Amino acid sequence: MIQIDGSEGEGGGQVLRYSAALSLLTGEPFSITSIRGGRAKPGLMRQHVTALEAACVIGGAECTGLTIGSGELTFRPGSVTPGEYHFAVGTAGSTGLVLQTMLVPLMLADRPSRLVIEGGTHAVAAPPFEFLHRTLLPVLERMGPKLAISLERHGFFPRGGGRIVVNIDPAPLRPIECIERGAFRAGKVEALVAGLPFDIADRELKAARKVLSHWPDHAFAPVQLPAEAGPGNALLLEAEFDHVTEVMSGFGKLGVPAERLATTAAKRMAGYLASQAFAGPYLQDQLLLPFAVAGRGAFTTVKLSQHTLTAADLIERFTGRKMRSSEAAGGTHLVEIG
């Protein structure tokens, strides 16, 4: 059994999700202590419990210690069974992070699956729906599976209530290399507002436009969502290239001025645009697991995050496959798995 200290590395929920996915893929059980030990409020939260419950359901796994607030648990995998599943976080906990636990195991199953996941679709510290739809899943499809995702309802913090539907047509994963992102095609910034003053969107777009001043005015657009979807606010920034579309985001939060939120998000996008990297800071750690399962792969990215270093360590512990990184031209890093 693999022993994991949940306070090491990234020190958050990613350790749980990656460990559960790797356990389902390899058949290796694991035990984890000091769950989310690197966070201000350690222990399992609702979205982490849902993610592990989902892994147990699709993987016939047994898990002890799976309660909100728990600081340790043991996970023993069974066999992955594809099918139709419905999971509800019950809060604004991220639907995307729950999906992360199940996605790669179901991409390798022997028949298709359909997942309905309810919870947060646009929340702090998690990938928004648009990142999954426009950035992650198109790259994974190049490896063989057919993947489709749709947004049926938006879900913001703290209310939640969002709903995504994911269809997975599995296939053996083939190695790919994602080195060049190609020519820039278009940029887009959308400010989503639901149940809040609409001038928030205007202020965010004005601040983002100051940073991304080379993008045309028509690239910046406010989006009014139904009031019942809120209260909530999200700023979505999209840069489309020949071979990848990068999505970055910022989310409204009490006490954080709209201008500051937008400026921070726009500067992150500007940093990515200034490099020649294929993968931005949030895509890089999402690629490690499928690339490792495929046996090898390579991509260029910006500076490696703690999430990525933690994921690489877990992959090596479960599979023996190592990540190698080296500095490349154009302010990028070359990451190789194998």
Please tell me about this protein's structure.
- By secondary structure, the chain is of the alpha/beta class.
- It has eight helices and 16 strands.
- The chain has a four-stranded mixed beta sheet with strand order 1-2-4-3, covered by helices on one side.
- A hairpin with an 8-residue loop joins strand 7 and strand 8 (162-169).
- The two termini are 23 Å apart.
- The mean pLDDT is 94.
According to CATH, the homologous superfamily of the largest domain is RNA 3'-terminal phosphate cyclase domain
Principal-axes geometry comes out as: globular
Mean pLDDT, rounded to whole units? 94
Unreliable parts: none
Spell out the blueprint of helices and strands.
Layout: E1 2-5, H1 13-26, E2 30-33, H2 46-59, E3 62-64, E4 73-76, E5 84-88, H3 95-107, E6 113-119, H4 129-141, E7 146-153, E8 162-169, E9 177-178, E10 184-194, H5 199-211, E11 220-225, E12 232-241, E13 245-251, H6 258-274, H7 284-294, E14 297-301, H8 306-319, E15 323-328, E16 332-337
Parallel strand pairs: 1-2, 5-6, 9-14, 10-11
Antiparallel strand pairs: 2-4, 3-4, 6-8, 7-8, 10-12, 12-13, 14-16, 15-16
For the structure shown, list the relevant keywords:
alpha/beta, UDP-n-acetylglucosamine1-carboxyvinyl-transferase, Chain, Dihydrodipicolinate Reductase, domain 2, 4 domains, 4-stranded mixed sheet, 16 strands, globular
Quick overview of this protein structure:
With 338 residues, this protein is of the alpha/beta class.
